[in-house]
Design goal:
Blueprint (H helix, E strand, L loop, with lengths): L7 H10 L5 H16 L8 E6 L2 E6 L2 H7 L3 H12 L6 E6 L36 H17 L1
Parallel strand pairs: 2-3
Antiparallel strand pairs: 1-2
Length: 150
């Protein structure tokens, strides 16, 4: 029985505290939540490509949109704080350039073999309440990788 509900932001911050190189994880989380932060109208016109030292780097091909997004930096930061915690994103930089999502995929469509694990750590019971299958699978991979480093 759950005695106290822990916010997702605290769980994410707890995982990140123990990792030495967090840049790729932070960028991945920022990219995952970007469509929810920016909304359906702008998610195809912008992309997050880096999070470094608390600065979220956003790219858009449209200079007018880049200028207009600068007026919404505080709202973007506030939404990321709701998802990922207080100090995850402290500033937003908007650059102009081609989106990588518009380009053809550079892979051949073949994926590598699934990594063989010696043993899978027991998953927390809270995993079962995650409804989004993509988020659930991402959390399981993240949890297994984190437990494997211990």
């Amino acid at each position: 029985m759950i005695k106290q509900i822990t916010p997702l932001t605290e769980i994410v911050q707890g995982f990140l505290r123990g990792w030495s190189d967090k840049a790729h994880i932070k960028t991945g989380l920022a990219c995952y939540y970007w469509p929810r932060v920016i909304g359906d109208a702008l998610k195809d016109k912008t992309e997050v490509y880096r999070v470094r030292n608390g600065i979220l780097w956003v790219r858009t091909p449209d200079p007018a949109l880049a200028h207009n997004l600068t007026f919404f930096k505080n709202e973007i930061i506030a939404k990321y704080r709701c998802f990922l915690g207080k100090n995850f994103v402290r500033s937003v930089r908007i650059t102009i350039g081609a989106l990588t999502t518009d380009a053809e995929p550079k892979t051949t469509g073949k994926t590598g073999p699934e990594p063989v694990r010696v043993h899978d750590p027991p998953l927390p019971n809270a995993v079962e309440i995650i409804k989004d299958p993509t988020l659930k699978q991402a959390f399981i991979r993240f949890y297994c990788a984190h437990q494997g480093r211990k």
